[in-house]
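Appendix C. Worked example: DNA-directed DNA polymerase
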Amino acid sequence: MVAIRPADVEATLSRIDPLRPVLLLFGPDSGLVRERARAYLTRAQQGSDDPFGLIRLDGDEISGDPGRLVDEAGTVALFGGRRVISLRAGSRNLVPAVEALLAAPVSDAVVVIEAGDLKRGAGLRALCEASPRASAIVCYADTDRDLSRLIDTMTAEAAIPIERDARGELMALLGGDRMASRGEIAKLLLYAAGEPRITCEHVRAIVGDASSLALDEIADSAFAGQPAEMSVAFGKATHEGMRADIILGSVCRAAQALHQMRVQVEQGASPDRAVESARPAVHFRRKPLIEKALRSWTLPRLQNALLILDDALLAARRHAGLGPAIAERALLQLATQARRG
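Step 2, the predicted output written as structure tokens:
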């Protein structure tokens, strides 16, 4: 098995392994998938002067012509050097194409595949994890430790220290998507340029809208019965490049957490006590919306909401082009139900 352990991810991505020409990046954090893919592709291209050395392929097109991936990987680069291929998975089955690639005697090529949140045992994930010629890395949403490291790295590069309280407030505002978090920190650094240090006032002034970029904002506004706010948050998320199925998956997890808290409420706990006891802890900015949702949604209604989300998630994956419309319609349906409730 070549599923990379979390502790080995950075070491794996820091070098190009000629014995494992295929790298699969997948998981719930689409921003981290993109960031790691870009960095690895850049590393794979180092030392090459070929302006056409990077080939970008669409997964849905490749699925209709499985042999094309082998042909592209086996083609000799025009100016010599390594052949580098970026492949983004879509809604169609990529397994035959990748299976043929792993079986082919292709040398001096690197293929980076970007995919969504693949379940354990899913065809593409299982294939790459089982092959000695591939590496599979799952990209989870950033933990507090990951966000802390990202803040430290970016502030150090900009040579602007950040106060301890400001750092804590910034971490609370950043969400579960790496690219969105990086964008917000970059915006803060630009705003604070020339200042001796970053303070809480800087964070509040420029990153006050960061939570709307987080996936939690979409779920919270939907279940609190705020369709207008949900649509704004959804639009920002899709503009940042978040895929519809990733958004729906996050809302599903929020609905499950809400279901657990509602169980406590029906056992006699107050909504605010249920929110306080939630693990992981709920950020203070989210508490009013979640408490409002707990007063509106009963257990049967939450179970029905999960069915709506599951159906929408399946449809968004089957029809990637219609994914945003499918997701927004389902989320608006939930927000409307919450408002009526």
